[in-house]
Write a structure and sequence with these properties.
single chain, mainly alpha, 12 helices, globular, disordered C terminus, TPR-like_helical_dom_sf
Amino acid sequence: MSVINPSENSSTISQLRREERVHREEQLKFRQLQMIELTRTTGQKLLFEGKHEQAVPAAMQSLRFAIDVYGLASIELVPSYLILGEASIGLGRLSQAEEYLSQAQWTVLKTPECSNAIKSKLYRNLGLLYAAKGEYNESLRQLADDIYHASEEFGTDDIRTSGGYFHMGNVFFRQNNMDISMSLYTQVTEIWYEHLSMLVEKKMSVSSRQESIGPLVTEVVDEDEGLDEAQEAEAIQVLNAIFDIWEQQASKKPELIAKITHALAMLYFMLQDLNKAKEFGRKAVVACEGVQDEDFSRNIVEFLKFIRPTPILFTNMSAFDRKDD
């Protein structure tokens, strides 16, 4: 009969307790990281919706979680400082915004390995701050740095880079430099249009496969290609703002109106707001009457057929190839 060594038994119990403690700590850290991501996304979404006061508690919560996980001097705190800074700008509390952005800038400068993505967001917020102060030349310089770092990280035609173009367009708009402003708004529209077209095309393709093969086909969405809540709110804010600006112009350009309305129709379709998708789709069809690009016009028609299978009437059918009906 074997004899249990009390010291071995005690060692085993201690080991189990250590493993249990490590497991609890890992689980706690995992939950904290999830909360950091959730509160930051929520805060950024509220900013895009213009709810600056409501964004502050979410940003403060994300900052507390980040401090608990990373400490007081980590680069991981910077995104929370940036949300707080942007919220303060929106509330007109510019001195408070400067404090948050100064803290973020100091942390970035002392962190050589800081990513271009974080630098881009920092310079974008500094650009917004200087624009709010009326210092437009400095604002444009900061936004140029934003676009540079975003392009290095994501590419020049990525939706995450487009925000820099949009805010730069706003600064030129305030300076009454309409040619440059409209050019930048056009670039923003093109970027979002291409991204939304890709998402809609994928959705339409999946739907077609489901109809031909049956319910066994399931939709597989690459999260990196989709939109998170903050990006959805950004798209709504940016594309509607550009649409309103172009609608107010004395001489409207049909191709610009058609593209922005089609982009909005696709956006609301992805957001499952079919009423607005159809509304902007109809506006795109009307604008297409003055557009010579038949392929572009046909894309809008096919999109509308997909979201609304009822017949669509056009006052100018010469834009479409009737033999394909």
